[in-house]
Structures are given as C-alpha cells and as structure tokens.
Amino acid sequence: MSTTTRRPVEPLDLAGIDDLLSPDELAVRASVRQLCDERIDPYVADWFERGSIDDVRGLAKELGSLGVLGMHLEGYGCAGMSATEYGLACLELEATDSGIRSLVSVQGSLAMFAIWRWGSEQHKQEWLPRMAAGEAIGCFGLTEPDAGSDPGSMRTRARRDGSDWVLDGRKMWITNGTVADVAVVWAQTDEGVRGFVVPTTTTGFSAPEIKHKQSLRASVTSELVLDGVRLPGDAVLPEVVGLRGPLSCLNEARYGIVWGALGAARSCLEAALDYAGERVQFGRPISAFQLTQQKLVDMNLEYTKGLLLALHLGRRKDAGALRPEQVSLGKLNNVREALEICRTARTVLGANGISLEYPVIRHMNNLESVLTYEGTVEMHTLVVGQAMTGHPAFR
Q1: What is the four-CA torsion angle of 131, 31, 362, 177, rounded to 10 degrees?
Q2: What CATH number should be reported for the domain holding residue 352?
Q3: Final residue belonging to a domain, choices 116, 132, 148
Q4: Domain check: are 290 and 229 in the same one?
Q5: Pairing with 315, which of 43, 86, 181, 375 sits 20 to 30 Å away (CA)?
C-alpha cells in the first residue's frame, strides 16, 4: 500500500496547472497578487462606482517599483522578465480589475513596446527608464472615431513642414490619455502610416477624458485631439513604415489579454463558489444542488482550458515561436469564455450578482470592453479563418 499523502484538491486548480509553473513564475504571481490585495482590491469597487481612480500617478509608481511596467522588455530600466511571467502578472491584475490591467498593458505593451521596438535610441533613453519606473505615463493613439477595426482608413494626418512634422486629427477610446506624459500617435503621411512620439505638453495636443462609461470605469479613457501639433523631425519612429508598426504593438497587448481575461473569470468563479457555499435555500447551501454544481463545474472547465491555452502560448512566445494567428486564437477564446463565466457567476449570485459588494457585475461589464478592444470577435474570427483556409474574408 502506498504511503504517499495526496495534497488536498485546490478547487480553482483542479488540473494542477500550478505544477507546470517555475518557482520564479510563482513568485512573480504572488508579488503582483500581494500588491493588488493591499493597494487596489480594497478601493477598486469604489473607483469603479465613482468612475475615477484615486492617485493614478501614485499607483503607476507602485506598479513601476514592482517591475511590472514593460516587464517583458529588455534594458532601459525594464525588468526583462519572460512572456509567461508577464502573462501571470496580467492575470492577477485583471483578477483585481480590467482597468488596472489595461493601465499596465497600454503602458508596457503598447506605448513602451512601440518606443522599444521602433523608436530611436534617443526616444528609448528619454522615455523608457521613466516609464518603467512609473514616473512617466504613456498612451497609444491608433483608434479613431471612424476607424477601429480598419486602421488603414485613419484620418489623422502628419505632414512635413520644413524639418518639422505637423499632426492634425482625432483619436478615440485611448486608455491613459488624460494622465499621459507621452503619446505614441499613428498618422497617415505621404510615405505611409508612421508613428510619432508626442510629449503631451506640446502645443495643440489635448486629451479630454471620456465620461458616462458603464465599463472600464476604474480606468482613464480619453479622446486625443491633435490640432496643428508641431513636432521636430526626430519625433517620428524611425524603424517602421506602414501598419505593421501599430499591429505589432497590438499583438503584444492581445497576448496580455489572453491571460488577463482569465483573471476576471477566476475572480467571478471564486465569488460564485464562495457564495454558493454560504447561501442557504430550502435548508441546504445552494452549492449542494445539482444545477448549481453544473454551473460551477462548467465555469471551472472553461477557465482551466483557457489557462492551459494561455500557458501554451506563453511558452511559445518565450521560445520565439508565437504567431499572430495563435494570439488571435487565444484572445478570441479566452475573452469570450471569460465573459460567459462572469455571466454564469452572476446567475449563481442571483440579485446580489448586480451589487458592487461582489466583483461579478464589475468584471462582467469590463469584459464587454475587453471583448471589443485589441480586435473584435469578428476580426479575430477572420484572422483564424484565414489561417485555416488560406482565404482572407475581411472584405
């Protein structure tokens, strides 16, 4: 007879996925979770309800001190951690709130990555160390009021005027815009789409905050207005021309979403499991009823499958083998399933599911935005469809 003592089952890790993580990966996850537990979780429901984060700059500095801003980039004060460690950080941040993960994603995977990958050495030296420390906040201006899934139709224009560039246009739904110190803005030029590093103190630049959101309320969302913004010639990102520049950045952010959405799902699954164990009806906790157990099991099953997919994609990214179509596969599946998990969790909590005393309705509302940004369900479906069939069906 075996004398081996089995560990108790972990309800939120029935498949034992933690056994696939290294000690360093577990340590990164624990550090991010501790920061969220102490610094954000006690306040985030109130931030969501008020539609305002208290001291966003102070929070950015704390995240920078932890090393999660641009954490998967090398040099210039960045932590140089693995893609899998970055993914685990995104999961924990979004288990707190999608808006917090968005702050980190836009800072590191969009604004910082654009400068790190496509910027000049001067751009990198000027901005990346401060952004990694959270001392400077960045935003990423691509989406426009009339150009979302089709960025090639953007109307923002950059024209040469002597040795300078002059930018005119509008960008919409820009995370961090109102509080940003620097914006990476993409514009049409005579040469094709180019990226520009725009200090937000530049004359003609403004970033009014977008109000009346019912999703991502614990996040700063802005419009960018560029009205004759004059920049020196070296403000342009020198290493890329065309849409492959912004699309490469979006691919980085989408990878973080593959993990992040699962954080929202886990938070709702955990809330539903705890609530079902405490809520007594007909003389029994509702977790003892078959229909409730079916909901809990189905939620856990989809969460587990999504986590295995995210981990697989993380390992591929660390090996330099991750393809954009694979990121689309992960984003498409994990956000869609995470949203369904949140909706199912809401039914377990009944009327309490709509109260901000529980995280469920907040995560559910947030994921409605995550479902759309960094590529809609339709766009990622067509990316995967083209990979399968060889036929582009975007038009």
Answers
A1: 0
A2: 1.20.140.10
A3: 132
A4: no
A5: 375
381 in Cβ contact with 394 (< 8 Å): no
Which stretches of the chain score pLDDT less than 50? 1
Q: Taking the C-alpha atoms of 294, 310, 264 and 36 in order, what is their torsion angle to the nearest 10 degrees?
A: 130
Q: Is residue 380 part of a domain?
A: yes
Q: What is the per-residue pLDDT for 115?
A: 98
183's CB contacts (< 8 A; 6+ apart) are: 111, 138, 139, 140, 141, 174, 177, 197, 198, 200, 205, 207, 224
- What is the number of structural domains in the chain? 3
Q: Which pLDDT score is estimated for 155?
A: 97
Domain C-terminal end among 132, 155, 180: 132
Contacts of 1 (CB under 8 A, 6+ apart): none
In contact, 310 and 25? CB cutoff 8 Å:
no
**pLDDT given at position 159:** 97
**What CA–CA distance (Å, rounded) separates 155 from 277?**
54
For the question of residue 374 being annotated catalytic, the response is yes
Do 26 and 148 lie in one domain? The reply is no
Catalytic site residue from 85, 94, 302, 374: 374
Distance, in Å, from the CA atom of 261 to the CA atom of 272, rounded to the nearest integer, reads: 17
Predicted confidence at residue 107, as pLDDT, reads 98
What's the domain range around 254?
245-389
234 and 252 belong to one structural domain:
no
